[in-house]
Design brief:
Blueprint: H1 17-21, E1 39-43, H2 47-58, E2 64-68, H3 72-83, E3 93-96, E4 108-111, H4 127-144, E5 149-152, H5 157-168, E6 175-177, H6 181-195, E7 202-207, E8 215-223, E9 226-227, H7 228-234, H8 241-262, H9 267-281, E10 286-293, E11 306-314, E12 317-321, H10 328-346
Parallel strand pairs: 1-2, 1-4, 2-3, 4-5, 5-6
Antiparallel strand pairs: 7-8, 8-9, 10-11, 11-12
Helix pairs in contact: 2-9, 4-5, 6-8
The protein binds nicotinamide-adenine-dinucleotide.
């Protein structure tokens, strides 16, 4: 008998394949109630979107992964390429379409769509190109998944997180920018490299704008639970302020360097965003520096602005923001970034 695939591609027409293949066992108990189905959508299947997708797949976090892009051939190619790894990965249904209905009932929507940063281009220059895209993307996501959490990755991430918040009408705890989670991981790597220790043993935060005016919280740096600066001072070990300042400069410049060398950044942001997705969807209540509505913190009073602050993430999105003690100079830097961002936002008419 000729066997044809049915349109769903999961069974064979005219043949009860499961009944023929599997024999029932005796005294089987009824199935236990199904666990909640976790669905993640990724909008934009470029370098960043695909790095996030592949990291998520290795983490066994989602039951379903939906991909959306404006380029149908590239999108289908990426979907097939990921599906072909099924034999090596935890089971995840992978679907893709240029139509947003494919994202219906997502728990988390990760937006990476956008114009790519060209070598030497500042993140702020990307703004106008990306706002126009968001005016199409965000309302479509909201219509398909009204209860989802939005995670914005496209740059300039702080302003686009604000734009997504405004366009979505969601409460601010459900709109999060990946922010300085990546900058902080670069910071931790560079400090760990300098001290020759494991980056996972280094606690260090970069807050504020993802990019040029980010603020390094020097007093937050600890290694194995030991605050580094006060340790050096107590032991009267020469204070390597210049080294630390140079490490922060390297954090700011290293994205430009990677883009100069390979054309884009992808692997680190892939791990960074997958890590945020895990904290949210598995209700980990971990603290990450991410872009949140920062108005009211550290006397930021110039209007509604998103900047990265250490925030506790769980199943409801942003659960709390840590009111971390910072120096007057650091607070002033934050307020100055907020003002610059506000000035740009006011020109957007969102
Ligand atoms: N926040 C961070 O830490 C961080 C880090 C790296 C990159 N980024 C940003 O992520 C974004 C993506 O970077 P990339 O290197 O993947 O770029 P890319 O050009 O490789 O991918 C962008 C994708 O978006 C798609 N796209 C464009 N318009 C669309 C639309 N209307 N709907 C759906 N898809 C659309 C494109 O077809 C493309 O596949 C950029 O804005 C970049 O600056 C952010």
């Amino acid at each position: 008998m000729a066997m044809k695939k049915d349109p769903s591609g999961t069974s064979l027409a005219g043949l009860d394949i499961a009944g023929a293949f599997f024999a029932p066992i005796q005294q089987s108990a009824p199935a236990s109630p199904p666990k909640p189905h976790i669905k993640i959508s990724i909008i934009g299947t470029g370098n960043v979107g695909m790095a996030i997708a592949q990291t998520l797949l290795t983490q066994d976090l989602a039951d379903e992964l939906a991909l959306v892009d404006a380029l149908p051939d590239k999108l289908r190619g990426e979907m097939l390429d990921l599906q072909h790894a099924a034999a090596f990965l935890p089971r995840t249904k992978i679907v893709a379409s240029t139509d947003y209905s494919v994202t219906a009932m997502s728990d988390l929507c990760i937006v990476t769509a956008g114009a790519r940063q060209i070598p030497g281009e500042s993140r702020l220059n990307l703004l106008h190109r990306n706002v126009a895209l968001f005016k199409k993307i965000i309302p479509s996501l909201v219509e398909s998944s009204p209860d989802a959490i939005l995670m914005i990755v496209s740059n300039p991430v702080d302003i686009l997180t604000y734009v997504a918040w405004k366009l979505s009408g969601f409460p601010s705890n459900r709109v999060i920018g990946s922010g300085t989670n990546l900058d902080s991981s670069r910071f931790r790597f560079l400090i760990a490299d300098h001290l020759d220790v494991n980056a996972q043993d280094v606690q260090a935060y970069i807050i504020g704008e993802h990019g040029d005016s980010s603020v390094a919280l020097w007093s937050s740096i600890s290694v194995g639970g030991v605050p580094i600066l006060s340790f050096l001072e107590r032991r009267q070990i020469a204070y390597e302020k210049e080294t630390l300042v140079n490490i922060h400069k390297e954090v700011v410049n290293c994205a430009y360097e990677v883009i100069q060398l390979k054309g884009y950044t992808s692997w680190a942001v892939g791990y960074s965003v997958a890590n945020l997705a895990w904290s949210i969807l598995r209700d980990q209540r971990r603290i990450h520096p991410v872009s949140v509505l920062a108005t009211g913190f550290h006397e930021i009073d110039c209007g509604e602005v998103f900047l990265s602050l250490p925030a506790q993430l769980g199943r409801s999105g942003v659960m709390t923001v840590i009111n971390v003690p910072i120096s007057d100079e650091e607070a002033e830097q934050l307020r100055s970034s907020a003002k610059t961002i506000m000035e740009l936002q006011e020109q957007l008419g969102v």
